[in-house]
């Protein structure tokens, strides 16, 4: 189950060794729901702006709980998503050359599902949380406060959100919405019962968004991640400014790299739990652990 749609306004000349180039062409999609059949792979590409919105007053239809593992990629010069996306245990890749925006209507449901076999509750199996990738080549990434991304799973591992915006003249990653990443249950590994890993985030940006200083923005984002139980992994690569970490950072796998300034830890970075924790810290202009720091 593979499909693709490409929309362009003009075709360039043929270049030996490179082929034909295409450019321009806006694409407007009006739908209350984007989803996919189990295991399907779909790519939507436009040379101009891609806008995906829900019709006014529309309600998303129910999705087959057994339609797992669908993949959807949308690419445009700019990209605005303002509708529901349901890809249980699937993959969603959104790519824009310029700005990438998740508006208030962007409700991304990648969560795992329970599947009952032979009408037998004892034979119920549980799927993993899916993955979301947001990538802006030369613009910013913004998520509205009313938007949500659900990477959670029950009796399986949570998914991962990756957000990348590293252009020197832009590079803002502003995630103001809800991100859910809880996981439950255990699996057996060589005779030892190990808890499933919760969801995680990998954020690579020039800077984060929100009010206050970079440290305030970092603390507010991590508090939202705590609220959403995104406790499996938190990786941050920040290219601009100094950063001070207080008590807000809690995940089993922590990595913070401040590529253009000084990193200070003035509180507790908590990687404790039943799984072995990992903490990696780096600051180009130095790393300071204050007297209140606890790793």
Short description:
It contains 1 helix and 31 strands.
Low-confidence stretches: none
> Order of strands across the biggest sheet?
1-6-8-11-16-19-24-26-28-30
Helix content: under 10%
Topology, number of strands = 31
Radius of gyration: 21 Å
The biggest beta sheet is recorded as: 10 strands, parallel
Q: Helix segment count?
A: 1
The shape, in one word, is globular
Could you tell me the strand content as a percent range? over 45%
Account of the 3D structure:
The chain is mainly beta and 295 residues long. The chain is built from 1 helix and 31 strands. It has one helix at residues 214-227, and strands at residues 2-7, 10-15, 19-23, 27-30, 33-35, 41-46, 49-53, 71-76, 78-82, 84-86, 91-96, 100-102, 107-109, 114-117, 120-126, 131-136, 141-143, 148-150, 160-165, 172-175, 178-180, 186-189, 192-195, 200-205, 207-208, 233-238, 243-245, 253-258, 263-265, 278-283, 287-289. The strands form 7 sheets. It has a 10-stranded parallel beta sheet with strand order 1-6-8-11-16-19-24-26-28-30, with no helix packed on it. Strands 4-7-9-12-17-20-25 form a 7-stranded parallel beta sheet. It has a 5-stranded parallel beta sheet with strand order 5-10-13-18-21.
